[in-house]
Amino acid sequence: MKRYIAILTLVVLCATTAVAQELADSLYHHFDEVEISASLKGTTTRYAPVTATTLSLRSLENRGVGSIKDISTLAPNFYQPDYGSSITSSIYVRGFGSRIDQPVLGLTIDNIPVMNKNAFDFDFYDIRRVELLRGPQGTLYGRNTSGGVMNITTLSPMVWQGLRAMVERSTINSYRASASYYAKPTEDFGYSLAVGYNHDGGHFTNHYNSTICDDGDSASARLRVQASKGFWSFDNTLSVGYTREGGYAYHHIQPETGIVEEVAYNDPSSYERLNISEGFVASYTTPTLDLSTITSYQYLDDCMTLDQDFSPRSMFTMQQMQREHTLTQEVVVRNKERGVWQGITGAFLFGKWLDMSSPVTFKEDGINDLILGNINNGIHNVFPDSNMLFSTNEFVIESLFAIPTYGAALYHQSSVELGNWSLVAGLRLDYEYATMEYNSFASVPYRFDMTMPDFKEFRTEFKGRERQHFFEILPKLSAEYTTPIGDIYATISRGYKTGGYNTQIFSDILQSKMMTDMMADLGIELDSAEGATSYDTAEATKYKPETSWNFEIGTHLSPAEGLNLDGAIYWIECFDQQVTVLPKGKNTGRMMSNAARARSLGIEFSADYTLKGLNLRADYGYTNAKFREYDDGVQNYRGRFLPYAPQNTVALLASYTFTIQNETLKQVTLSADYRGIGDIYWNETNSLKQSYYSLLGAQIALRLNAVTLAVWGKNLLNTDYNTFYFKSVGEEFYSKGLPLQVGVRLSLNL
Amino acid sequence: MKSIRRFIYMVALLALGVGCDTGDNNLPTKPVEEECYIGTLSVDQNDGTFYYQSNVKTTYEISAEGRLSFAMYSVKFAEGMPIKLNMFVDGVEFIEEDGQYTLSGNGIVPYAMGGPFEKFTITNLTGGLTEESFSLEFLCGEYPVTYSGVWRTI
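The joint structure predicted for all components is written out below.
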């Protein structure tokens, strides 16, 4: 312990030198004041015909942003809730989103597109800039960007050199640490290494065994090497991330009373993920042209283990193990000449090879309730004293998948400056080919006790191959008029979420098939099997792309020094909307279906005022998103609000930095932030909702030259709210938001 | 002609896993797809009413040992019965005369739902079988059952 104190003292002493202060100043000054966009697809200045929110390094650190989820509400109508696990990176933008499968938001990190949303939830450190473009960005970014795209840029050793370190301790028993080193030994060569570790002590107790269920650990490292020679520059980033966590703190809702019970489930639940990303960018830059080639390899290996009934009963458990290799290649050409015309042209190729195993283990209660119960209900009508029996208390439905997906795209976007007018037109052609080979099977010994003296091994399987082609045309048109205090623009664009396969429905299909086949094996047909769902399997296992048109008018204004105002109104028409469908009855799976048409209307407003040490910021988004058509065969939901997306997002920030003329203490920054979210409807009937709720946060940061000590609090009023609602096996559950958290952070910039 | 048809039945039933050994519960699960008798089943409900089921498919087989068996597919014995079952009856006695079979049997335990179905033991079975038609009368448990079908190629 003494050794640690000595090291810490030494670090603080070093950090309080004048040199250290200079370096730290340069870090924030550089990234706050200079408009930097490392995007190879064009700098997004405030005066572009797009609604964008940009968060700088200082802004991210002041607001305690530790992951993409923390950016919720900081950008209007952007919401990534915490559904209890890193795997469920559900994202909602402008009313649209999805609980599973394809996201509405694209993500790039240092120009590398992240191709699997399971890797979206990662620990932030040394993030230099986050740029969130809202509205379809399909023309330049392609698939799964119908809600927008988030471009994340990390610190570069070519622009800043030094040492950074951070340790943080927070409730409950959570801590984070990161360290990074940025060096530029020569003018044309730089490298950096950043590592981070995060331990989450968890907040919710599983009352079945009185243990914390949502604790976890994660670690990551990022090695970046940059070099330049003549017109060429090279940027290589290797990232590795590992996370192992509990989670799934789902509270059962008593059906009769609506009382929300404590978390209690009997089987272990966890999520484990290893992801590796290797990205290489080579750019050839002349005064008139930028040519870039972006190559990436991404590897994701994860395993989700679930007590899928989330109850103390032994119903069934599920594992989902994925191993995915992805290769991407993009070539982008931009002309840089300042003139009437500017253009960007690109081509994109990718291949994804996903192998997945999803064994569902039916346990004693699940066998009796979901399978034998249904069969015996029918049998008992004729033979009240006879039963179908299994010789085992559990059996496994194994489902194996091989899902390769290939895509190719060509795009071009031109902009023309005509006086105060700027006109932009773009078009992208996207092609995708996806196949799925599946093999789902189960084997169980059974007997009908009236006629069969012995158990008989029964095997059922469902195997085959599906293939799909998608071809999408993604145009964009915009016009912008610039005045001395800002601009006004109008944009029409089309985006899409790609199609895919419903791997999560296979256990249901096989469960249903098992009942039918077992009956056939016995030579009987049930007139009706309560709880059994019949599937048109070819249709149930796949879904096609969701497309949307976005019409938007917006403005960016700077009416006074330090004051920036942004506003937009939009109208989105969504076709073939992918909605999550739960099969009727007590079933175990879920699937995506292109069952709906919807529209969304809304407004977004951001104001930012900076005067000396004062910073005031407000972001507000309103969405009115409703079904135009959606009939699930039981009910018509036309006119109902889309579930899961918030109608209002509010973020307010006030911070003031006192500059102190003191040898040691240089600055004191006080900041307070308010976030409001809601209403969020939980179902298509709109009978359940999370009403608008408020979260208060605050931070006080003392800057001692290169060392900053911050004490922060989140959800200071300990607001009780729900982040998620779902049904499983006919039962309803809530996931709760995190309670009051406080922490202390010590960071160093040398 | 008849021997060919018998051969087809035997092959089909074997393919479906039909065994004539009473200890075997690999019972027919599907009707012969292309050729069978199709007719109407009538069950006296013993309360003055009858339950009728049309389009009931049946097949028969004569084993090398000279035993006749027949199978009835997807049959119900009462309106309220929520399941249909395949029933296999083995060990029917028969006399052949000029291509016509006269059937009889008593105390035969049918096979259904994976094994012997003692609750519905067949008694007083009589019937006739030709290339064109198949008729049966028997007591299934306590319920009088009749069946009359004609040869169809589906």
